[in-house]
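Duplicate of #3305? Posting structure anyway:
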């Protein structure tokens, strides 16, 4: 089942990225050292890197039920950031989010992630997870507000190339496990 390519929340529009979005993505967040600081992908130094992301996005949408979404203001149409699902199997995916600096602290990440959780449930995922750095409290608070449970600290697990290039660091693993027996309601507690 394919997910919708466009979703609306109270204040936001989440939509599938298009090739024409490259300049706005690059300008708004993918080239910003502060916006990309805690991300698992390197900050874009050239617009070609953003174009490569858009090709990756198209491939994800073709292969899986969903993929990356851009986050826009519903009232102004301004690009605020990105989120989405990165499938690993038909039943397991990772999620995350990035916002332009002027969109921080307004509850947009929580609102966008709540919509992504609904997409994950409708796509019949069993497990949705996210990784974040232990000292990035703003990120793990968003995950907790959206019903994710902290499972573990994964030691030397992931590289954050904008902080410590080439050095795997400890990360917190948060997850939602959807139970098929109760219509996809997320379950709390460890999902191992």
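Output from current build:
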């Amino acid at each position: 089942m394919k997910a919708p390519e466009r979703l609306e929340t109270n204040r936001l529009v989440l939509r599938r990225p298009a090739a024409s979005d490259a300049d706005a993505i690059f300008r708004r967040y993918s080239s910003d050292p502060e916006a990309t600081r805690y991300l698992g992908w390197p900050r874009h130094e050239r617009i070609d890197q953003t174009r490569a992301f858009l090709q990756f996005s198209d491939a994800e949408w073709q292969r899986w039920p969903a993929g990356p979404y851009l986050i826009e203001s519903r009232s102004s149409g301004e690009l605020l950031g990105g989120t989405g699902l990165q499938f690993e199997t038909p039943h397991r995916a990772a999620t995350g989010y990035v916002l332009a600096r002027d969109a921080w602290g307004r509850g947009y990440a929580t609102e966008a992630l709540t919509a992504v959780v609904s997409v994950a449930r409708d796509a019949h995922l069993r497990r949705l997870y996210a990784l974040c750095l232990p000292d990035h409290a703003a990120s793990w608070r968003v995950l907790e507000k959206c019903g994710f449970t902290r499972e573990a600290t994964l030691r030397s697990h992931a590289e954050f190339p904008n902080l410590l290039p080439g050095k795997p660091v400890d990360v917190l693993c948060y997850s939602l496990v959807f139970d098929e027996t109760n219509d996809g309601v997320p379950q709390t507690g460890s999902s191992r």
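Confirmed duplicate; merging threads. Helices lie at 22-30, 47-63, 108-122, 137-145. The chain has four helices and nine strands.
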